[in-house]
């Protein structure tokens, strides 16, 4: 996330692991000093006042290979001017893929910064601590790090992240339950932004033989969603105003305009920003949560204070500038500001039918027609449906919120379930919607299953075993489900919105159902009918040459980050941060990028 070629927002739960040795050093003596974990102080640091971050390092008792810094201090160091220095900041970051695409393919130096929600097995303690003023308190964060697939992954350690989430990244990042936020989310994400601004300056990362030392100040930050909207503000108010980061720029990437970070206007004072920023946050809101009327709107400030705004598909860019309904009342700001749409790539390593560890029959485009029925049987057996490879099977995977239209699907099922068809629904989210999908088995024992769990192996089995993947979203900024499905030769049936329009072409690689109402309080009967009729239309192609051709068309596409990362590269180069150069297309700038560098 970077999503976004970008620090793409997803759960990091796959990386949750047991406590590692790095925590054992907690009682060691703290010293306000510089050693190989940090570069020497320069004049600009002296400009730091007490409101600026303080940086220090915890020394260790042993000289063993406890940190990547200590290990890499003897490796060859060639500081390389090629490419840009990119820092993706987000509340969530998927395993490697998003920045991986940009970093691996184009030879830029790439870091992601995200919270440390669990004791990640592969995240090593850098021993670098920074003191940051958050609200009216001084908080100390500690940086953890690992280097994977050519990307420096930095994790910000603080109790506001770890002690709240404890690895439950599928459900507890933003609040104790879906739909309920933590009271201190503004402080949590303020802390993330402040820490992210320090990371390129203070972390001496030497895992890549082509780059050494801190990233420095000539960087481009890619801020993702409302959680990172304070970053461009702090960059200006705390750094540029003191002669630091003078060349640095910020690209703001919106993954979902439905979540904007709207809070009481009086909360502006806890953000520690000068009054001149108030106008950028000022927002009149008819909605009552948390209070009706004048509010601060983090995303609005992110749009206004960044150097460029990007979103995750061209069609979504059009939608969110079209009017208040799809632009969720920020359409006017975006029209004024401009927004570029670049469709997301997908993680083609994690989602590869030829190597997928969660499916027993591996396949590719040449073997899909033989493998599909076997994968379907395995899926049917797994969820307890009658095992019959000749029954067309429809899958659904997604968060159970109005956005994803699982309620529209539930209403449509009676209208098509009498066909020769089975359906498997996987998702977590709102409790009422979880109950709704769990009812499916009772209502249609031989036809439908609903699994209300966050279950990665089952997500892979559905993607491989289903014939069709249904994506009935009211809105969908990009959508990954349909990309994953197509890579597995599973034909998508999608609502005509956002990235689903850009990536699924009717009759070629899927089926379009038309645009649905974005009114989330009700299920529109027209949309229900569209789901049922399009599913029946899709079922009629099952087993025909037209279907075989669609499967082949799906699998023939390059859905990786390769194409999108070139588009991202151009947007970021246009910011003209000094020293930025294009990467070398097609060349392996970083040979280590292919393999994960083992942690010591
Ligand atoms: N119960 C479950 N068990 C296991 N895995 C599950 C799961 N529920 C979901 N997943 C997985 O989570 C991912 C969700 O992808 P989406 O495109 O639906 O993203 P989401 O809407 O959450 O994010 C937002 O950001 C992304 C990235 O920019 C945009 O594509 C999207 O439109 C926007 O709404 C998929 O990899 C899926 O397999
Ligand atoms: O990957 C899914 C989405 O994850 C993020 O959205 C989260 C959002 O940023 C949080 O603020 C929170 O949203 C809650 C909202 O604040 C609250 O008022 C209420 O409406 O419930 C919302 C849902 O709980 O959680 C969201 C995740 O569920 C990310 O910002 C999006 O881009 C992703 O689409």
* Bound ions, cofactors and other small molecules, one mention each: adenosine-5'-diphosphate-glucose, ligand LY7QZA5B
Q: What's the main sheet like? A: 11 strands, mixed
Which band does the percent of strand residues land in? Answer: 15-25%
* C-alpha Rg (nearest Å): 24 Å
Uncertain segments of ≥5 residues (pLDDT<50)? 1-52, 59-80, 96-105, 586-600
Q: Roughly what is the average pLDDT, rounded to an integer?
A: 83
How helix-rich are the residues, as a percent range?
25-40%
Write down the overall geometry.
globular
Q: Write out the strand line-up for the largest beta sheet, numbering strands in chain order.
A: 1-2-5-6-7-4-3-8-9-13-14
Kindly name the structural category: alpha/beta
Strand segment tally: 20
The number of helical elements comes to 21
Domain Starch synthase catalytic: 85-335
Pfam family, one: Glyco_transf_5
GO molecular function, one term: alpha-1,4-glucan glucosyltransferase (UDP-glucose donor) activity
Region (Disordered): 579-600
Task: Summarize the helices and strands and which ones pair or pack.
Layout: E1 30-31, H1 43-46, E2 54-58, H2 68-72, E3 85-89, H3 97-106, E4 109-115, E5 124-134, E6 137-148, E7 151-157, H4 159-165, H5 185-202, E8 220-224, H6 230-239, E9 249-254, E10 262-264, H7 278-281, E11 282-285, E12 293-297, H8 298-305, E13 308-311, H9 314-320, H10 324-327, H11 331-337, E14 340-341, H12 368-383, E15 393-397, H13 406-416, E16 422-426, H14 431-438, H15 440-443, E17 448-451, H16 456-465, E18 468-471, H17 481-487, E19 491-494, H18 498-503, E20 511-512, H19 525-541, H20 545-556, H21 562-573
Parallel strand pairs: 3-4, 3-8, 4-7, 8-9, 9-13, 13-14, 15-16, 15-18, 16-17, 18-19, 19-20
Antiparallel strand pairs: 1-2, 2-5, 5-6, 6-7, 10-12, 11-12
Bound molecules: adenosine-5'-diphosphate-glucose (ADQ) and ligand LY7QZA5B.
Residues 9, 174, 178-179, 181, 225, 255-256, 259, 289, 399 line the site of ligand LY7QZA5B.
């Amino acid at each position: 996330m970077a999503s976004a070629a970008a620090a793409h927002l997803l759960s990091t739960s796959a990386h949750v692991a047991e406590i590692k040795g790095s925590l054992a050093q907690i009682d060691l003596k703290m010293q306000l000093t510089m050693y190989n974990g940090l570069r020497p102080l320069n004049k600009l640091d002296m400009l730091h006042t007490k409101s600026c971050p303080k940086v220090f390092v915890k020394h260790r008792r042993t000289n063993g290979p406890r940190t990547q810094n200590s290990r890499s201090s003897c490796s060859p160091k060639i500081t390389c001017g090629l490419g840009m220095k990119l820092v993706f900041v987000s509340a969530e970051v998927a395993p490697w893929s998003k920045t991986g695409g940009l970093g691996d393919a184009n030879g830029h130096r790439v870091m992601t910064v995200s919270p440390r929600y669990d004791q990640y097995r592969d995240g090593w303690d850098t021993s670098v601590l920074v003191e940051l003023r958050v609200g009216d308190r001084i908080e100390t964060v500690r940086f953890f790090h690992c280097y994977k697939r050519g990307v420096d992954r930095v994790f910000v350690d603080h109790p506001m992240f770890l002690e709240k989430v404890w690895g439950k990244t599928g459900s507890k990042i933003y609040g104790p339950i879906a739909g309920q936020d933590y009271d201190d989310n503004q402080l949590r994400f303020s802390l993330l932004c402040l820490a992210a601004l320090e990371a390129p300056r203070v972390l001496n990362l030497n895992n890549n033989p082509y780059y050494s030392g801190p990233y420095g100040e000539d960087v481009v930050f890619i801020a993702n969603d409302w959680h990172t909207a304070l970053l461009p503000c702090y960059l200006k108010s705390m750094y540029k105003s003191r002669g630091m980061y003078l060349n640095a720029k910020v690209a703001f990437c919106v993954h979902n305009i439905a979540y904007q970070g709207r809070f009481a206007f009086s909360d502006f004072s806890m953000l520690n920003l000068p009054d001149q920023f108030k106008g950028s946050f000022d927002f009149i809101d008819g909605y009552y949560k948390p209070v009706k009327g004048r509010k601060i709107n983090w995303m609005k400030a992110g749009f206004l204070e960044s150097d460029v705004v990007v979103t995750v598909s061209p069609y979504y860019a059009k939608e969110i500038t079209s009017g208040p309904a799809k632009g969720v009342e920020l359409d006017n700001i975006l029209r004024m500001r401009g927004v570029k749409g670049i469709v997301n790539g997908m993680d083609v390593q994690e989602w590869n039918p030829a190597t997928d560890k969660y499916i027993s029959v591996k396949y590719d485009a040449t073997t899909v027609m033989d493998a599909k029925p076997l994968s379907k049987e395995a899926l049917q057996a797994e969820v307890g449906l009658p095992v019959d490879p000749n029954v067309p099977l429809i899958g659904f995977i997604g968060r159970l919120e109005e956005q994803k239209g699982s309620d529209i699907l539930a209403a449509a099922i009676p209208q098509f379930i009498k066909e020769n068809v089975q359906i498997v629904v996987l998702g977590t989210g709102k409790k009422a919607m979880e109950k709704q999908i769990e009812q499916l088995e009772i209502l249609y024992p031989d036809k439908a299953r609903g699994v209300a769990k966050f279950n990665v192996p089952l997500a892979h089995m559905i993607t491989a075993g289903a014939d069709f993947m249904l994506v009935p979203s009211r809105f969908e900024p990009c959508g990954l489900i349909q990309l994953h499905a197509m890579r597995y030769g599973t034909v998508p049936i999608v609502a005509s919105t956002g990235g689903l329009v850009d990536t699924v072409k009717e009759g070629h690689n899927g089926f379009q159902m038309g645009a649905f109402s974005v009114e989330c309080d009700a299920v529109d009967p027209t949309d229900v009918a569209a789901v049922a009729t399009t599913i029946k239309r899709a079922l009629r192609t099952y087993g025909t040459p037209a279907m075989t051709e669609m499967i082949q068309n799906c699998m023939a596409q390059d859905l990786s980050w390769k194409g999108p990362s070139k588009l991202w590269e151009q947007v970021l180069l246009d910011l003209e941060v000094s020293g930025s150069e294009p990467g070398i297309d097609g060349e392996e700038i970083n040979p280590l990028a292919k393999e994960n560098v083992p942690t010591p």
